[in-house]
Amino acid sequence: MKKIIVLALVALGAFAIYRKIQADRAELDLWTEATAAGEN
């Protein structure tokens, strides 16, 4: 039973890290687009 709980916690942690990376990447894309538009 403990193994299932630990596995679930690891999966939740991995999912949270994945979502954080996706959010950071999206923010970087927006920043890049905004600064590139100003150069033209």
From TrEMBL:
Cross-referenced InterPro entries, in alphabetical order? DLW39-like
**Name of this protein:** DLW-39 family protein
Q: Which organism is it from?
A: Nocardiopsis lambiniae
